[in-house]
Amino acid sequence: MSTASPASPASGPVNAPQPAFPTEDSGASRRRLPGDLAVWFFILAELLAFAVFFLSYAFARARDVALFNASQLTLDLNAGAINTLLLVTSSWFVVRAIQAVKRDDKAGGVRWLAAAMLGGFGFLVVKVFEYAAKFDAGITLSTNTFYMFYISLTFFHFMHVILGLVILGVLLANTWRGAYGRDAYHVLESGGAYWHMVDLLWIILFPLVYVMR
Amino acid sequence: MSYYTAANRAWILLLLATGLTWWLGESGMAESASVPAAFLMLGLALVKGVLVIYDFMELRHAPRMWKLLIVGWLAFVLSMIALAYWTGLR
Amino acid sequence: MQYKSQAVATPYFIAAIGLFAGQILFGIVLGLQYVLGDFLFPAIPFNIARMVHTNLLIVWLLFGFMGAAYYMIPEESETELFSPKLAIALFWIFLVAGALTIVGYLAVPYATLAQLTGNDLLATMGREFLEQPLPTKLGIVVVALAFLFNITMTVLKGRKTSISIVMLLGLWGLAVFFLFSFYNPANIVLDKFFWWWVVHLWVEGVWELILGAMLSFVLIKVTGVDREVIEKWLYVIVTMTLISGIIGTGHHFYWIGAPEYWQWWGSIFSALEPIPFFALTVFAFNMVNRRRREHPNKAAVLWALGTGVMSFLGAGVWGFLHTLAPVNYYTHGTQITAAHGHMAFYGAYVMVVLTMISYAMPILRGRAANSNKAQVLEMWSFWLMTVAMVFITLFLTAAGILQVWLQRVSESPLPFMVAQDQISLFYWLREGSGVVFLIGLLCYIASFFVRGEEKTA
Predict the structure, then answer these.
(1) Which terminus of chain C has a smaller tally of CB atoms within 10 A, N or C?
(2) Residues 150-209 of A with CB under 8 A from C
(3) Which residue of B has its CA nearest to A196?
(4) pLDDT of residue C243
(5) ipTM at complex level
């Protein structure tokens, strides 16, 4: 398993990337926060935003279960499930890309990142078809509370997938240029962490909005 | 390198868990046995979330505070959803 | 100071403090009019005093932001200002235009002023905070564009840092969003939309970027912490501001006739608006704790920390207090709003401008920091003003809660003016705190004239 420790034993501690903010554990112990601390603060804030959204949905649903259940039947379960598969697989590709870069396997890094982006684009395509079907049916934010949440939540998430793809694109270009390697994967891990967050959010969103009745 | 890495294992488990969640909806279990199905799905989401956090985000070996914060977020959100679901049963 | 042209900031800072004093004097008059309705009537009616109080606030903060930009940008860009002459010319134009506007408010009835200044050509007057007559509004646009030209050219010819880019983004946003003030649709819902796109997107959007950039600049200088570290925090603050603040505008759309989903969108996103302010607090304290040097200007460090805390309390906590739609249903437009407005403006924008002035003025006057005696007086003024503001906020909050209760929740709701009579005790207490604030401000001004052993630059 090549998870936390970078590179060969000889260059381990010396070349370990220095976090820009020393964390309380750095130095003394081997526990390490992958990526940049600022990115983690950002992720935390994003998680908080979605938490508020998820819980608003959950409690609004509790007050009108019949309406939510009836409207939920019109959603495309298969599309939601395919999108989950696409995102978790894409996330896994990013992990493989980082592992490749940590072995100084530049070509591997590029390939895995490209595959990850493909997964993200696939997600967007499926979602666009889903939206098109709903909008054709005349559904809007004002149709009812369920659709208000369905459209807002998934669209807010959709925007995060787009941002995640932009980040992956930058990482891909940098990997291509050879900017990352066994001693320099700090930025790659930061971007990866963001993409995994997008995945994590969908893992809650899918059962919550599409399946639970 | 070995194919049995934490990340590969997590990916397989994530696919399986997603399939199971989908099946709960597709088979009508989510409808006919809605309460156990709902709690099962939340449990699956917890497992999937922890897999992503531990093996994809690589927080398994991160400073405890961060691990606790992110896993705590997941547990909090899922348990509040469970609470809301439960209040909606009456 | 490192660059000669930074000196153009001096008159901006002096004008800012002068207008600040004017704002507080009108605040005292206004506070008294809450309990003695015809105080100074008909010379200065309540609506005029209120307008002058809020307009002066905005104008002096703009002076402060511009002064800060003129001070920061050459140092960040490592080059002289593009045109110091233009900066000085704009100063006088803006000051004269501002003064004439205030004279106009005080000398003639508002309707007459509207007639005299061509409001029938293009109706722009009458909206809260944007009451300025057409010529003043046009003047603001011209001054803002020329100012932005000057600053942007300076950045373009020199080093580009994250701080100057965030500052530019904030200032350009400020100018662009002001353009919405020229459009007054007849549809009253649309009218409110455009009004909030100035007011909200200013104070809960682009001004926060200016705030973040100014605070980051001062913190780099007084703590000596690495630029990269400070810039990362700045990025986090900027992103969180934009994520929460832009859609957070929805918390103004609850009851104006907009679609119902705004109650959800507004509640959810504006509930996140405290986050960037919380980050700001953590940021300020974290940087000061990790300082690599002891800057002789202790007062500036105190102001910077104060900005972190008070902006979080005023904008973050007091904003959150009434931002959720079900709560706002009761509190909308009560003294709760006034409480939030006072502490948020003071804690975020007043304090950050004073932080910058406190840091820059001694240097502009040829020394690293003021004498110990002057700094002690300045710190007294910090505590007097800040504690007075805390009390103003607490008294207004109490007044607001009581008002909501009497006027909206109670079984037999009282009419507005009757409810106002019931809460007059809190208005008196607020007025007392206001006087303490004025004393604090006088100490602040006096601290500029205290001499003593000076520390060399």
Answers:
(1) C
(2) 152
(3) B57
(4) 86
(5) 0.95
